[in-house]
Amino acid sequence: MSGRLAPEPVPRRDFLGMAGLVSAGVAIFGSILGMARLPKPRVLPEASSRFRAGHPAEFPPGTVKIISHRNVRILSTEDGIAAMSLICTHLGCVVTETPDGFQCPCHGSRFDTEGKVKQGPAPRALVWLSVTRAADGALVVDTAREAPPNQYFKV
Amino acid sequence: MASSALASFWENLKGLPHRLRDSVLRHGAPTSDRARSQAVFSNFFLHIHATRVHPRSLGLTATFGLGVALVSQFIILTVTGVLLMVYYKPSVELAYDSIKDLHYVVPTGRFIRNIHRWAAHLMVITVILHMARVFFTASYKSPREFNWVLGMILFVLTLMFSFTGYLLPWDQLAYWAITIGANIAASPNELVAAMGLPEIFNVGDLQRELLLGATSIGQEALTRFYLLHVMVLPIVMTIIICVHIWRIRKDGGLARPEGCPTAAGKGVGAPVSEALPPSVAPTKTYGLMALVRDKSPYTGKVMDETLPSWPYLLRAELLVFMITMLICVALGLLFDAPLKELASPDIPENPAKAPWYFLGLQEIVSYSAFVGGILIPTIAVLGLLLIPYLDRESEPGGVWFSGRRGRRVAIESLVFAIAAAAAAVGIPVRYGWLRTWFPDIPQLFIIIVNPGSLLTLAYALWSLWIIRRFNSTRMGAIALFVCFLAGFVILTYVGVSLRGPNWDFYWSRADWPVH
Amino acid sequence: MEKPDMEVLDRRIKWALLMVSLLTLVFLAAAAVQENLIAEWRIVRGRYARILREKATDDAGREIARQFENRIMQNVIPALNITDRCITCHPGIDDPRMADQEQPYRTHPGDYLEKHPPEQYGCTICHQGQGRATVFADAKAADVHWDYPLLPKEFAQSSCAMCHAPDAIKEYAPLAARGYELFVEKGCYGCHKVAGVGGAMGLPLDTVGVKKKAAFPFAYIEGDHTIANWHIEHLMDPQKIVAGSTMKNYNFTYDEALALTNYILSLRGLDLPMNYIPKDRIEYEYHKAFRKALPGEELYKRYCYACHQDGLSSHYDPILKRYIPTVRNPAFTAIATDDFLKRNIEKGRPGRDMPAWEEQAGGLREDEILNIVAYLRGDTPLSPDYDERYRASGNPERGAFLYERNCAGCHGETGHGIQAPALANRVFQESATDAYIKATIERGRHGTTMTGFAQDSPSFAALTSAEIEDLVTFVKTLQ
Known about the structure:
Number of strands of chain C: 4
Largest interface: B-C, 41 and 37 residues
Structural class of chain A: alpha+beta
Number of helices of chain C: 24
Largest sheet of chain A: 6 strands, antiparallel
Order of helices and strands of chain A: HEEEEEEEEEE
Strand content of chain A: 25-35%
Distance between the termini of chain A: 101 Å
Number of domains of chain C: 4
CATH topology of the domain at 50-147 in chain A: Rieske Iron-sulfur Protein
CATH topology of the largest domain in chain C: Cytochrome Bc1 Complex, Chain D, domain 2
Strand content of chain C: under 5%
Radius of gyration of chain C: 34 Å
CATH architecture of the domain at 50-147 in chain A: 3-layer Sandwich
Strand order of the largest sheet of chain C: 1-2
CATH class of the largest domain in chain C: Mainly Alpha
Order of helices and strands of chain C: HHHEEHHHHHHHHHHHHHEEHHHHHHHH
CATH superfamily of the domain at 50-147 in chain A: Rieske [2Fe-2S] iron-sulphur domain
Number of strands of chain A: 10
Helix content of chain C: 40-55%
Oligomer: heterotrimer
Strand order of the largest sheet of chain A: 1-10-9-4-3-2
Helix content of chain A: 10-25%
Radius of gyration of chain A: 30 Å
Number of helices of chain A: 1
């Protein structure tokens, strides 16, 4: 036992040491907070959600045209022209057209011709999109702006 | 039975928070020095430290905190590097634009990129200073020879990091740096051609192909450099850094003069000849924990003279980390990292200058690609690497320049090295070189006999002469190291400040011709 | 014994830690302020928000003001690889109410935006500059590391001509259209190729509009060191800007140089997606590809005039330092067959300044070359005493002696040509008949320094017909 040392108690923490430690901690924490903002992009590297679908003359009443690279279906009736998104509201797959509406290949949602949910997990109807006209008369569809269902744009 | 099991389930659920904490931390808040030691060596991240540290090692002049600064920079570089990878796209079409986006629109992106770039520059400076500190305090002596070797490897890795890093933005600097780097890798060819050796000796082409993945510079090359920068080098570097730090402890802590005993009883503090081989030395050094006085040959003598690493060493380390962070943050806020024009294969910048730390190399490369780009750097690195094996004079570590004699050698070598480097740069600038004097001289002479190789030779001869003069290998080592440092600094200065368009010599930037 | 020291040291470390950490916090806070509060674009957009509120007099205006967000806006056009953030700080370009505002808020002039919606074209496609930048200085990119700084206003028309046909933009881009006219009128095609048609003495100009600043020598430029100004000063005095340049000095006025620069800068070799190419350009390219040969005179003006001028007499060119041969002089056309003219135009004179104009080289079709031949011939028929079947069979050694004495001074010892045309030229040797050479030596070439040797002249004694035959025999041996 002669060689055993009794554990020495640690002196009470001093204010200076704590202050240094805390300020260092705050600085490191602050920089981590700042860095945590980096992954959230400030602008999205995507093309404008607005795109030109074509001139109204291309869409006489009765026309149905699918603009596949935008996943938008343009429908022209006597009431006007409307655009509907073909993205399933469940988990974002692209729906395919069937004789009585649309169906989603991923999880089996079914929609009627107006996009209302008939069956499956989709929480809401297919989205109708805003249609406007550009200065040169072309139709402009904005995939980021929703329009009320069955709203047709008068040409 | 069932109900009691259910009761103990409730009990366990209530105890979950503190058990979870205990299982992670294994010990409570350290209330004594012993508990602190326990904390250090039961913690994965801390146990590469010694548990106790000699007060002398905490002093500013012992290390200047350079090693910890390097680790701090490495951590900062890793964190900022990972963040940059969120947006960086390693594609020749997109890389440049992604850097521009980082600069202009990514939240904190400009700041993070600046910090990454300046921390990298800082790391190159610090690694050289660290090397100089270790060298001049003779801290590479037995049993620390191998840690010196690891340090040299880390030095080379740092430079490789820098080189692969500044290629990634795919700007003009990057493109022409790869071009030059790849052709340096291919430069053994010029020797093969000059000597008239058969094709089979053309290792240069192989090296370039391995580097570029193609004969010309493009996506393949960028992918390879990206892989090196974000994957291969970080892994290798992390492992070697860990071993490097761990060996500080295993080699007996920081070197210090005699009379400063060590905790473990190993290493330089004890006379080297008496150091115990690992098989004989105590396998568990209980003295470390301040448990016993007399169980090991060195217990009792040491305990009162060392301090627990927690909190003294840790606090000092935190200080160095914060200083490093301060420098990086300040630089990052005040100065933007450079970015040149988009890479353009048809027209190099003039002058096409590498970042400052490679401009000394660029200066000797301007004499000969092979000798300047491969031979001399290899000789320099090997020469430094082997110092601890060629200078085995036993002496106390931790004394700057090993005393007055060493200081004198250092000053003399400094004067000689500066004069020699100035002559190596000045003579060709003023009088031209072999081809100016003998236009028909064989290429082999031009490759081998150039200012760079003569300078290297002069430094080597000078060091040998110092060994003879002072009858001391340590003095020779000091001479060699001073020559290396001075040569590096002078050549770098010439490359940074005195070279202009077409690598011509100008005293001032104001004299550069208008492009 | 170390303990007291240690306490001092430990205290110092604590103080240092506190100070360093606080200072770091200060810098971090400064960075946060810079990032989140005082970024240039935030301030600029903040001011615009105020303008919007001031101008909000009706519901629509109030709605615009309400929806306005202080964030970075951009136009991303993947098809053109364009990401332009200019609209962040120029938010008023499409708002007609901003016509009275100072830049950067002013409405874009004209109806350009209606025809070229920014979300489909971006801004830099016309204005150049650095579209990704969110700071004015970097976007203008005058002194930053960026290859294509903002095009100054007076050169903006070059961007119209980049896509549109030069004759379709006379109204919108009169300068660029005038530049193209000058380019044709002044015979720039004589030396410069554009789209595969043109001479070979100068550089092809297909992508000169995207040539990077670093590729221009600015040492002697007096005004702004911009690419546009380089072209202006270079056009006005080529030899001053590029020492030893063989470019012809037309003494252009500033206005002419400005117009030409607008055209030159439009040559950007742009690789556009099909749906971005305007109809007028397609029509223009169609007519160019299936063109009817222009009259010989017009073709001559376009491709030959720059060097040969009216072609009626030879003249000394101080830049090329030699005489330019006459090509329309009756003394020449009377003994030059159409075949001789055609082959010399088609093949040029290899190694001399005259380039080959055949379709694979200079881009002229056979019918065009024939029109030029017809124009060269004019009203001068082949001389009745020109006998194509004539073959000289004199003594070449005597011919060599005579050549040395009479011809070498201008045509060169070995016939490689000094001021006068090269005789040891492959195309000359293949196309020039003995009769042509004989007639030229006998009669000389009126309007040039070539004297006729059949009679005495001030500097040379007359040669006998035998001597001329010897000479022709020798000339045909020159290689």
